[in-house]
Amino acid sequence: MNEQLAQWRMLVEERLSASLDRGPDCPARLQEAMSYSLMAGGKRLRPLLVLMACEACGEEIEVAMPAACAIEMVHTYSLIHDDLPAMDDDAERRGQPTNHIQFDEATAILAGDGLLTLAFEIIATEVQPPEVAAACCADLAGAAGMTGMVGGQMADLQGGSGNAECGEEGDDSAFHIRTSALESIHRRKTGRLLCSALSMGGRIAGANPQTLRNLTTYGESIGLAFQIADDLLDVCGDSETMGKQVRKDVEAGKLTYPALLGEAESRRRAEELVNDACRAIADFGSRGQRLEAMAHYVIARDR
Ligand code: GRG
User: Fold this and answer.
1) Which atom of ligand 1 is nearest to 226's Cα?
2) Extents of the domains making up the chain
3) What is the pLDDT of residue 254?
4) Is this model's pTM higher than 0.85 or not?
5) Fold for the domain defined by 2-300
């Protein structure tokens, strides 16, 4: 990460920390649990994408900071809930015990709820003008909700990527069905939220509809590339660097890109998606440099 990005990341960290200070009506234990996960040092990809989209559209990043914090809160809520015993049942996240291990299940559920709702309060009260705040709330809610991340998580829990409807191994049509089922889950579960980072950043900077479409196309491509990289890291990654258990998907026999396409073809597909993403933002010229670098980072990352 270059110096400028490290600086942006630090600004995001400071704003995230300050935004949890909501006065004495919030029980100390709840605030502690929210802060524990929110401030645990994730990569902050989603907030950085909000700021990069805003910059690419010609605006100062400061105006996009509330939306940048809000999306990281929604992301962190999803990780806390995903780690619960009723979902993925994970004991480690971002290099530390998961929220329900450190606190307890009820507190972890409430910490997630608190972060999810605070995200929308921040956008509604801090993004200007109010029409843009409303559009950002709609973007983020759609991306996080029943047809986005929550829907994708449900489909994943139901085994949509590997069940009988997805066809048997060994024939071509079954392969296509399985590939599109896998893509459909990831588009909802992780892709939509990444897209909303870009559309919110663009909207806040006053982007026109065509520019918003280009940003969304970029988001869709890096969203899928991000997921392929995530699947590859589950196979080849190092648990200490990643701060969580690896090879979980493989051991659970989950359908993943390397399982479906093989490692080499998965890498080739991820590179192709990064090129698609870069083409979609070509009109930004040099103002899109950071977005371009981010697209490459998404598949080169080691955590
Ligand atoms: C519980 C509603 C609900 C949704 C959960 C996002 C999600 C849906 C589950 C997370 C499971 C998972 C590991 C998905 C793969 C992609 C992903 C979101 C990885 C984590 O995001 P990073 O790599 O994490 O950006 P950091 O910690 O860097 O922020």
Assistant:
1) 16
2) 2-300
3) 79
4) yes
5) Farnesyl Diphosphate Synthase (1.10.600)
